[in-house]
Fold:
Amino acid sequence: MDSSVTLLDQIGNRKSLRLEADATGIISDRKYNLVMCSVLAWGFLANALMVTYLAEPIQSLVLGMRPLALIIGYFALAFGGIMLSVKSDNPMVSFLGFNMLVLPMGVMLCIIVPTVPIDILNKALILTGIVTSTMIVLGVTFPTFFLGLGRTIFIALIVGILGEIVASFLLGYRGSAFDWLFVMVFSGYIGWDIAKSQQYPKTVDNAVDCALDIYLDIINLFIRILSILSRRN
Structure:
């Protein structure tokens, strides 16, 4: 728990430091948003390629690994990528950190997605796209509202994580209530991160860092929507 809090504190500090970017690195709003969208698109494309062409070998590899080694490897890559992006002012280093996060997320999707019927998968993709597009528009249109939600959705996220752990492992609850909670939380985070991204100085490094934040929001939203639809099926 202490390491998680420290990580969150460091990420929060890095987000504050984004406001202090060197003015010599400023690019136009159009280029800034183009870089951010391009990095996001690359992350989703990489995940789609992994699921399409590497799902079977990845599943075979995962089945041959010890669960503890798999968990350690997953979090080492994910947290390592986040920390690399958090601590770096170099856009290439931040992009490397982004890809270090995309890799374990892709492995997780390679395990989850092939077990889901194609009609449910398509519905989840469509719903994720609709929710994401809506929250992006709202985040850009009403930035003040979403910027004021930061603490609320963070508390909701922590309460949801702890509540799901207790309900699952101590009470044996396997319902979709927490999935619905996290859908709302990550939807709010998309709007918040979009609004926040437009407050930072427009540098390439900030664009890559913001893309990482939004990527996490969307991937987690997709997984939760997929879970809800699969339970209903």
